[in-house]
TrEMBL record:
The keyword Magnesium does not apply. Signal peptide: none annotated. The keyword Cell inner membrane does not apply. Its main location: membrane. It is found in: Cell membrane. Gene3D superfamilies: MetI-like (1.10.3720.10). Keywords: Cell membrane, Membrane, Transmembrane, Transmembrane helix, Transport. This is Peptide/nickel transport system permease protein. Belongs to the binding-protein-dependent transport system permease family. Residues 93-291 form the ABC transmembrane type-1 domain. Pfam families: BPD_transp_1 (PF00528), OppC_N (PF12911). GO terms for cellular component: plasma membrane. The chain crosses the membrane at residues 35-56, 95-120, 132-151, 163-182, 213-235, 270-291.
Length: 302
């Protein structure tokens, strides 16, 4: 009798975890991924609330204190116009991260929709989407942005409008990788039992896509979005560094790092460029580590 009660109590205590909770537990056990998550969270929070609580504004001029090194008054020093570089670093983080996040969102939306359509319908739909994907992958990225930058300059498009244009263009040119990933996932699911059962029951295509296929692609989409964010930060900072992306006076990590273009600044004015470069390095590294951790957490084979 006691044995039966013990078995029943043990059975009651057993909790069946959903795949999401299992993946979350596996991710939390990865110490490196969690460390990267905390560092990235700190950078994002600092970029959000830093400009609000920090006493200096990013465009306030302090001409008597031009080119001053880090001090108690200006924690990261000032630039050639006396502007506080920590306040500009906070705001630059906002700009670079917003561009990266929203460009990744555009990339994920386009890539997921086209990947699902290509994998599910196949035939001419698949062929057309894959041909467009091949063309975009083979196109030289930098000359396109040089052309677009010249067009924006001739149309007097500067400042914040330029940020939105850069964001949309990055997303529209980088979706083929996500599209191919989702397409391969859909092709693998089409032959599984639940899809054959849905086909036998005569369920509409729209219901099969939104109820059965899309939910099963969430894991790869999340992993792809993290990689897209890292790629977005890298592309934005690279373009801004060569003055094809965000241009001053609006700060971004890329155009702040662009200060390091001469030997004098590299050697004697290191506070101009080093903090921005550190933020770029930490953000891209942390996002990539988190992406690897999420990929391992969602991989049921491991």
């Amino acid at each position: 009798m006691d044995m039966e009660l013990e078995v029943n109590n043990t059975a009651e205590k057993e909790v069946i975890l959903s795949p999401w909770r299992v993946s979350l537990r596996r991710f939390k056990k990865d110490k490196l991924s969690m460390a990267a998550f905390y560092i990235l969270s700190f950078i994002v929070i600092a970029a959000i609330i830093g400009p609000i609580i920090y006493p200096y504004k990013m465009d306030t001029l302090d001409l008597p204190n031009m080119n001053t090194p880090p001090s108690l008054m200006h924690l990261l020093g000032t630039d050639s116009l006396g502007r506080d570089l920590l306040s500009r670093l906070f705001y630059a983080g906002r700009v670079s991260l917003v561009i990266a996040f929203l460009a990744s969102l555009v990339q994920i939306l386009i890539g997921t929709v086209l990947g699902v359509l290509a994998g599910y319908y196949g035939g001419i739909v698949d062929a057309v989407i894959m041909k467009i994907s091949d063309v975009l992958i083979s196109m030289p990225f930098l000359p396109i942005f040089i052309l677009i930058s010249d067009l924006m300059s001739t149309q007097d498009i500067y400042s914040y409008k330029r940020i939105y244009i850069v964001m949309i263009i990055i997303g529209m040119l980088t979706w083929p990788g996500v599209c191919r990933l989702i397409r391969s996932q859909v092709l693998a699911m089409k032959g599984r039992e639940f899809m054959e059962a849905a086909e036998a029951l005569g369920i509409k295509d729209s219901r099969k896509l939104f109820k059965y296929i899309l939910p099963n692609t969430i894991g790869p989409v999340i992993v792809a979005s993290t990689m897209g964010i890292a790629n977005g930060v890298l592309i934005e900072t690279s373009l801004s560094y060569i003055r094809l992306g965000v241009i001053p006076p609006v700060p971004s990590w890329g155009n702040m790092a662009q200060s390091a273009t001469d030997i004098f600044t590299l050697q004697y004015l290191w506070w101009y460029w080093l903090p921005a470069c550190v933020c770029i390095f930490l953000t891209i590294t942390c996002v990539n580590i988190i992406g690897d951790g999420l990929r391992d957490a969602f991989d049921v084979k491991l």
